[in-house]
Amino acid sequence: LEVKGLTKIYSLGSIFSRIKITAVEDVNFEVMQPEIFTLAGESGCGKTTTAKIILGFEEQTSGMVFYRGKPINELRKKDKIQMLREIQAVFQNPFSTFNPLRTVDSYFYETLLNLKIVSSKKEAEKKIEEKLAAVGISFEEFTQRYPNEFSGGQLQRLSIARALLTDPSLIVADEPVSMVDASLRMSIVNLFKDLKEKYSVSVIYITHDLTTAYYVSDRIAIMFRGNIVEMGPAEEVLSNPKHPYTQLLRESVPEPDPEKRWGTKVVLADTEHEEYLRIGCKFAGRCPSAMEKCKKNNPPYFKVNDVLVKCFLYK
Ligand code: SF4
């Protein structure tokens, strides 16, 4: 998957006072197969909007998304069923993924039949059993049960199994562990690693949780106010962060050992609204290293080893 110059501008407010918010601004990245690529950042950084555009739930204002070299919008029109098979989604809230009035298995049979993946119930059962095994759930405990009969962790596993029914090559997982009990998060994250190894599935993992991101990602892009501010191998970006925002983000990860407390002061100078509208570096209002030029000029990307950093400090 290749994302090129992706921009999404929302118009907000009434007809008398319209303001434009650039939720995603000139975002560029590639996702290889198989690879776990993470988009990380705080709420409002543009990671979910980027995912929605890739999945076709939102339309971009400008820029393109290519899948296997072809523009995804055109593919969607021409060969929708194939697209639905190849790119699947796993959402944040497993309790709203499934309708509480329907048994979970009905979704599985419906997906297989609607997308013409199987032609008989027997074939469907075989396929379902295989995908349930991949997420560690038995066919017996799954059959004829309603969503409220499963825990949050089990339901999230089931939504991953449902996504696997079409043998996708890419799964877009939007905050898949944020509503799952903390003790089960790593088991879900591990599942993505297994899927990559066993089925060559790539994952776009969207999260604000740097701990799971560090564990699961091959590469990571850190986003702030619609921009990717740092991107590279996850190990390098998270253990040796270069952009001042990535540094602050990493320092916000709770450290249980008081001797190791990071201690950098976070500056909160701008409102969220001011940050979106700033013409220079969006982070200038909070940045401990901000210079005069940062306020008026949008920094370009500088390459530091394998990492791209959008910051004048690396000129
Ligand atoms: Fe800070 Fe300037 Fe770098 Fe922005 S460009 S992160 S304000 S030093």
Could you characterize the architecture of this molecule?
With 315 residues, this protein is of the alpha/beta class. It has 14 helices and 12 strands. It has helices at residues 47-55, 72-78, 80-86, 94-97, 104-114, 121-134, 139-142, 152-164, 185-199, 210-216, 234-239, 244-251, 272-277, 292-296, and strands at 2-13, 18-30, 36-40, 62-67, 70-71, 87-90, 170-174, 202-207, 219-224, 227-233, 302-304, 307-309. The strands form 2 sheets. An 8-stranded mixed beta sheet has the order 6-7-8-3-9-10-12-11, with helices on both faces. Strands 2-1-4-5 form a 4-stranded antiparallel beta sheet. The longest helix is centred in the middle third of the chain and has 15 residues, at 185-199. The two termini are 29 Å apart. The mean pLDDT is 91.
In short:
With 315 residues, the protein is an alpha/beta fold. The chain is 37% helix and 23% strand. It contains 14 helices and twelve strands.
Radius of gyration computed on alpha carbons: 21 Å
Count up the helices.
Answer: 14
Order of helices and strands: EEEHEEHHEHHHHHEHEHEEHHHHEE
Estimate percent helicity: 25-40%
Structural class: alpha/beta
Mean pLDDT: 91
The total of beta strands comes to 12
Largest sheet geometry: 8 strands, mixed
Low-confidence stretches: none
For the terminal residues, how far apart are their CA atoms? 29 Å
